[in-house]
Design goal:
heterodimer, A: about 550 residues, alpha+beta, D-Maltodextrin-Binding Protein, domain 2, Dipeptide-binding Protein, domain 3, 2 domains, six-stranded mixed sheet, five-stranded mixed sheet, 18 strands, about 20% strand, globular, B: about 325 residues, mainly alpha, MetI-like fold, about 75% helix, about 0% strand, flat
Chain lengths: ~550, ~325
């Protein structure tokens, strides 16, 4: 009987997945209904250009459009982008990949009735790319390649780049690049959008009660005809994971977009059976181990290599994925992206990825002995958040113990954890993470550059910088792949400056009457909600 | 009496100043700041220039002494500043949450009084009987059981019970509506946390009522009343209860003040948008201005409730004269 429960859960869950997919394909979207979302984080401000939290994206993004976006019908693809306020297809670069000409739609209106033109899109990207002194822009660094933004007419927007770049289009598609009205920016200034909303999105702002909820109502003039299907939505703030879980179970919420751990998925499926649909995806977030190179003995590459060799990522993936939101083994690039190194290649070329863990541990012990660190002891700095930090941290300690390394864990709340990791840099070895919205491998791997603002390993390496500079300036995919392989080997093999543990795995169980929403490889993506609809008959079956 | 009130009012200022200094210093001892969290809390690219700009804008980079005087100056002029996380006035953030916390505190206090006083009196009047043992077990269970844990049990009980009964699981609403706007919604959300906290609160008050009553029932004037032939109900209700209320009122007052800002975990469990949840958020987000304002608010409530309790003593016991 003991072994039966998980099998039943899996079977029902599988049925839910299959049934959900079949209905989503077969059924015609229905108009009406309100979607109740639970959100686990708080809204700092409404301004996408300065914020970086999903706590803002989930409730506020439906009010805004972007110039382009991930394809809402195929969000799992990391390379499929479609126009949002532009017309036709996403443009290809011309003039050697240094010029991108977007045709802007002329039939779009802001929620206050003002028609949208290319001037609004230019004003938006001017604010993001070239903010005036004293004005914050959290994604300015992604657009360093942009030389100028011009609008020859009301329907055309041209980005002129300093050099070809493989990061440009994914950067434009980032969900934080809300299109603002030039009129609002001119009249109210650059900080107005922090507390006010006027977008062109599928939903219009109704109310926001701080710490409680945000309400949106369908935009009747939305530019994607026939959408949105929902009459409105309410995004309820619920910081505790257990509350979000019980809210879906108790019918107070229909969906949560960030993701639940495996146990929560099983609990929901067990309680509600086929009334729950589960969508799962690889997640563009990865947990890293960052040693401080300025601290002995972690200034010695042999010691760092011993640490990575002792980690059995393949068995970790198998076992940890039952209890934590990590699963996928990969290198420095999001594993499902075409530029990523396949696992087979990682196994043979990158240290710490071999299937033969016994041999890896023997090598690790040998390296430690050579470095005079056979009795290595250190403290692992970790963040006081269960999923997945503490779970993975505890697992790592067990892995290192097999190589004779004794590790204590120093778990701190987020604020002191960040202070130690990012400001004081006084740790021996720390858990670190890289979590991005759009899958933009070339931009994402900048994390491993010694000069990057978010690299806390405290080292320098001119070869890595040179390889990255070349990578930044090529739009040729084959060359990008070659350079990324070089870069990855330098990071993980030669320097072992940081170590990859496992990539996260996103699990979104939701009420089965919620249709049209498709999981993406990031909790920031595909949040416009214009494709989402409620199957009213199915909802009645749920007794709601 | 008036001299006493004025003296007590004047005592408010050093108490508040002391609390202000302590909270200011303690918060600055925690490494890190709101900008580090805001711009890098979710693991994306962190632009050091943006963090620096944020620290300058919020005054975090200013010398601590200048931050302190600016904070004290704000308190003196009743300007609590703006939240470092939301950039909205702190008074606005508190005003949104205050009605919910006040209502929970009132409901829990009423629950507690309704349970505690009759049970405490009965338990004392029937000392060492089965009833007394049952009341004592009930109250000890209430003290031993954390209210947030009881809250979790209530939610799970509601979900499982309603699913078993009707096939559709039910849980309390997640967002607050004023009792004047939608009483059914309001009560269906708040009755559960009020019961969970009120039970623990009543357990303390029941034990206090019982021991105070036992003391009073052994007094000479109670024996005299019995010798006069008064019936037991009159002795207990008219002569003993009022005199036994002094320590009970103190407990009720302190617990009420605690409920206004101290329901940190219970508010999380029931997802209540109250002052306790705001407290947790402000601390985890290193939002100094908001945390400082909340601490000062709770200190103020504690001081005022104590003051009111002291004044009630005179009414309850005419022998107490403040002059």
């Amino acid at each position: 009987m003991k072994g039966l429960a998980p099998r039943v859960v899996t079977a029902v869950m599988g049925a839910g997945l299959v049934i959900g997919a079949a209905i989503a394909q077969a059924a015609t979207p229905q108009k009406g209904g309100e979607l109740n979302i639970v959100v686990g984080s708080k809204i700092p401000s409404y301004d996408g250009h300065i914020e970086s939290t999903f706590g803002m994206i989930h409730p506020i993004k439906p009010f805004y459009s972007g110039l382009i976006r991930v394809n809402p019908d195929n969000p799992s693809s990391p390379t499929d982008f479609v126009c949002d306020v532009c017309a036709g297809d996403v443009p290809e670069g011309t003039e050697g990949g240094t010029k991108y000409t977007f045709k802007i739609r002329t039939d779009i209106k802001f929620h206050d009735g003002t028609p949208m033109t290319s001037a609004d899109v230019k004003a938006t990207f001017d604010k993001i790319v070239f903010p005036p002194d004293g004005i914050a822009s959290n994604r300015k660094a992604y657009f360093k390649m942009v030389e100028s933004i011009t609008t020859p007419d009301a329907e055309t927007l041209i980005f002129k780049l300093k050099h070809p770049s493989g990061t440009f289009i994914p950067s434009v598609a980032m969900p934080f690049n809300f299109i603002y009205s030039k009129k609002d920016l001119d009249k109210h200034g650059y900080n107005w959008h922090q507390k006010n909303v006027n977008g062109t999105g599928a939903f219009m702002y109704v109310e926001h009660i701080q710490g409680s909820h945000v309400k949106g109502a369908a935009n009747p003039n939305y530019h994607h005809k026939g959408k949105p299907y929902l009459k409105g939505y309410t995004a309820l703030s619920a910081p505790k994971m257990s509350v979000r879980l019980q809210a879906i179970r108790g019918g107070r919420a229909d969906i949560e977009f960030r993701g639940f751990p495996p146990k929560a998925r099983e609990d929901l499926v067990k309680a509600l059976g086929d009334k729950i649909t589960v969508q799962e995806s690889d997640w563009n977030c990865v947990l890293l181990v960052t040693p401080s190179h300025k601290k002995k003995p972690f200034d010695d590459a042999r010691v760092r290599q011993a640490l990575t060799l002792s980690i059995d990522r393949h068995s970790g993936s198998k076992h940890l994925s039952n209890i934590a939101i990590v699963k996928t083994v990969g290198g420095i690039v999001f594993p499902k992206h075409p530029l990523a190194t396949p696992v087979s290649e990682l196994k043979s070329n990158i240290i710490g990825y071999s299937d033969d863990i016994k041999s890896s541990i023997a090598k690790a012990k040998g390296l430690l002995k050579d470095a005079g660190q056979s009795n290595l002891k250190f403290t692992l700095l970790n963040r006081g958040v269960d999923q997945p930090y503490k779970v993975v941290g505890t697992w790592l300690i067990g892995q290192w113990r097999k190589a004779g390394i004794k590790v204590e864990q120093d778990v701190r709340p987020s604020t002191p954890f960040y202070a130690s990791l990012r400001k004081q840099k006084d740790f021996d070895v720390s858990i670190d993470f890289n979590c991005q919205s759009i899958v933009n491998p070339i931009a994402d791997v900048s994390k491993f550059l010694p000069t990057a603002g978010n690299n806390y390993a405290s080292f320098s390496d001119s070869e890595l910088e040179k390889t990255y500079d070349r990578l930044l300036q090529t739009a040729d995919v084959d060359q990008q792949k070659t350079l990324l392989r070089q870069y990855e080997k330098r990071v993980l093999n030669d320097l072992t400056s940081q170590m990859i543990t496992m990539w996260w795995y996103k699990i979104n169980p939701h009420r089965s009457y919620v249709k049209g929403w498709k999981i993406a490889p990031s909790h920031y993506l595909n949040q416009s909600l214009d494709n989402v609809w409620i199957d009213q008959e199915e909802k009645k079956r749920h007794g709601l | 009496m008036y001299t006493y009130i004025v003296k007590r009012m004047l005592m408010l200022f050093p108490t508040l100043l002391g609390a202000a200094i302590v909270v200011f210093l303690l918060l600055r001892l925690i490494p890190g700041d709101v900008c580090l969290l805001k711009f890098g809390g979710e693991g994306g690219y962190v632009d050091p220039e943006q963090i620096k700009m944020c620290q300058l804008r919020l005054g975090i980079a200013d010398p601590k002494v200048s931050q302190f005087f600016s904070y004290i100056g704000g308190l003196i002029t009743f300007d609590l500043g703006t939240s470092m996380w939301t950039n909205r006035p702190v008074t606005e953030e508190i005003a949104i949450r205050f009605p919910l916390s006040l209502q929970i505190a009132i409901m829990a206090t009423l629950t507690s009084i309704i349970i505690a006083i009759p049970l405490g009196v009965i338990s004392a009047a029937k000392q060492n009987s089965i009833t007394d043992y049952l009341v004592r077990a009930f109250s000890i269970a209430g003290i031993a059981m954390p209210s947030f844990w009881l809250g979790i049990l209530i939610i799970l009980g509601l979900l499982i019970g309603t699913q078993a009964y009707s096939g559709v699981p039910w849980m309390p609403p997640l967002h607050y509506k004023s009792i004047f706007v939608d009483p059914a919604h309001n009560l269906s959300q708040l009755i559960w946390p009020a019961l969970a906290t009120g039970y623990r609160y009543s357990a303390v008050a029941t034990r206090m009522t019982r021991s105070a009553m036992l003391d009073v029932l052994r007094e000479d004037y109670v024996r005299t009343a019995r010798a006069k032939g008064l019936i037991e109900r009159v002795i207990v209700n008219k002569h003993a209860l009022k005199n036994a209320m002094l320590p009970v009122v103190t407990i009720i007052g302190i617990e009420f003040a605690f409920l206004m800002g101290g329901l940190v975990v219970t508010e999380q469990v029931f997802n209540l948008n109250g002052l306790g949840k705001l407290f947790v958020e402000s601390v985890t987000q290193a939002d100094y201005t908001l945390t400082q304002a909340l601490v000062m608010l709770v200190v103020f409530i504690f001081v005022m409730v104590n003051f009111i309790v002291d004044l009630m003593y005179a009414w309850l016991d005419p022998r107490i004269r403040y002059s």
